[in-house]
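Structure in, sequence out. Go:
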């Protein structure tokens, strides 16, 4: 490059830059993969065996008939910062899991965020709070664990949280 003119050096630099931009433009795009799950325990990077806190699509008056659920539900364990779902890169692909109610009845396959009307805490040791906003913000409601060998108590969400619920946290 010592003997090259200023003009030749500028052309060489411009060619190198153009080639680099061409490589960036033609690089393969990252892939996005999305799944719908009815429990955060179905997310591959979350460790839990089953959900303790059940969110039901309908209020308790419309959720059960006889001894059968006639509404859809989703189950969660632990802290869930956003009922919309969770995402993580798996290699070059962005994997997203969206939380939905199961296909049991009313509310089948609808997104959970801002759609639950009642809750059951089926844990024998964990207490929970359900929050109005993602990230554990705003109004919340406390749900105590069930008694030892007791049934899970179905409780309606307070009016400020009915169909306006976005996260949960251990209490």
């Amino acid at each position: 490059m010592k003997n090259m003119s200023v003009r030749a050096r500028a052309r060489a630099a411009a060619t190198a830059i153009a080639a680099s931009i061409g490589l960036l433009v033609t690089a393969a795009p990252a892939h996005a993969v999305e799944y719908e799950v009815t429990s955060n325990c179905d997310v591959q990077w979350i460790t839990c065996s089953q959900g303790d806190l059940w969110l039901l699509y309908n209020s308790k008056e419309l959720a059960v008939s006889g001894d059968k659920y006639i509404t859809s539900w989703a189950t969660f364990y632990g802290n869930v910062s956003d009922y919309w779902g969770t995402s993580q890169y798996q290699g070059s692909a962005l994997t997203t899991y969206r939380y939905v109610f199961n296909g049991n009845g009313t509310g089948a396959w609808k997104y959970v965020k801002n759609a639950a009307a009642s809750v059951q805490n089926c844990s024998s040791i964990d207490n929970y709070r359900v929050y109005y906003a993602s990230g554990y913000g705003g109004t919340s409601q406390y749900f105590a664990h069930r008694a030892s060998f007791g049934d899970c108590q179905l409780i309606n969400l307070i009016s400020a949280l009915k169909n306006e619920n976005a996260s949960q946290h251990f209490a």
